[in-house]
Amino acid sequence: MPGNSPVNAVGKLVVRAITTLELLIAFKAIGLVDDLHATERRVCAALLDHYNRKTGQCDPSLGTIATLLNLDRRTIIRSIQSVVRKGYFFKDRHGGKFHRNSYEPNWNKFQAVESAWCLSRQRRAEQKLSPSRCVSRHRDGDAGVTQTCSSNLTFETFTEPVTPLTPDVSETAQTSDTAKIELVFKALAKRMRNNDYATLIGGISVLEVHPRKIVLEAPSAYVRSKLLGWYNNDLTDCFRAYFPNVELDIRVRQ
């Protein structure tokens, strides 16, 4: 079958086990892209639902998909041809059981869509509110409230200076960089979901520690984009709690 699966030295297809996270990302990508119409999205979802993550088998008959989606068989044929042409699936003609067509999701394309979405969210989060549109202080007699928008600056939302929650300075100064890194990862484990922590932080390596910069190495561009997107604030807060004013440089492992 063509696509993402590797082939060994004797030319035999080696099926790579697909994780639950990769499958969820594929479903997410189908909902995010703008070049699929409603029927094509439903057909993509049906094909993904028939994909066996352990064996790589995905060969539902056209009749099965048509019945499940309550659509005409010819509509299914046209939709499959379209999603294959657009690169979301690979098709192996008569490669499945009983000489049915076999399909393989293009996992790389789905991850690229999701990574682009994360980067877009990151850029949106980095946009600061214009000072001219913000009230610099609370009105007289108004009670202080907790700011829930991560992009607002603290001096724009509180009447008094806000002291960040950081460890005791004297205790931090006496702690080695290695011990501080361990404390950072423990703090991240408390903030992140278990699955995300194992997937994203588990493969991270610390390359360099400088007074103003810490260099991290991510196992893939996908992991880097997730950290810079969904968990950028958590990552920065946890590191700066033990390394004040430090900047993070996340690189991709070569």
Structure, explained:
With 254 residues, this protein is mainly α. The chain has two domains: 20-114, Winged helix-like DNA-binding domain superfamily/Winged helix DNA-binding domain (Arc Repressor Mutant, subunit A); 165-252, DnaA, N-terminal domain (GMP Synthetase, Chain A, domain 3, 2-Layer Sandwich). The protein has helices at residues 20-32, 38-49, 62-69, 73-85, 107-126, 169-173, 177-191, 194-201, 221-229, 232-242, and strands at 89-92, 102-105, 205-209, 213-218, 247-252. The chain has a three-stranded mixed beta sheet. Strands 1-2 form a two-stranded antiparallel sheet. β3 and β4 form a beta hairpin. α1 runs antiparallel to α2 (38-49), α3 packs across α4 and α7 runs antiparallel to α10 (232-242). The longest helix has 20 residues, at 107-126. It starts with 19 loop residues before the first helix and ends with a strand.
The Rg value, from CA coordinates, equals 24 Å
**Strand-and-helix sequence, N→C?**
HHHHEEHHHHEEHHE
Number of H/I helices: 10
Lateral arrangement of strands in the main beta sheet = 3-4-5
Write down the CATH class of the largest domain.
Mainly Alpha
Number of domains: 2
Name the shape in a single word.
elongated
Low-confidence stretches: 6-13, 130-134, 150-174
Main sheet attributes: strand count, strand direction, barrel closure: 3 strands, mixed
**How many strand units?**
5
* Helix percentage range: 40-55%
Any idea what the CATH architecture of the largest domain is? Orthogonal Bundle
User: What proportion of the residues form beta strands (DSSP E)?
Assistant: 5-15%
CATH topology description of the largest domain:
Arc Repressor Mutant, subunit A
N-C termini distance: 28 Å
Structural class based on helices, strands and sheet pairing: mainly alpha
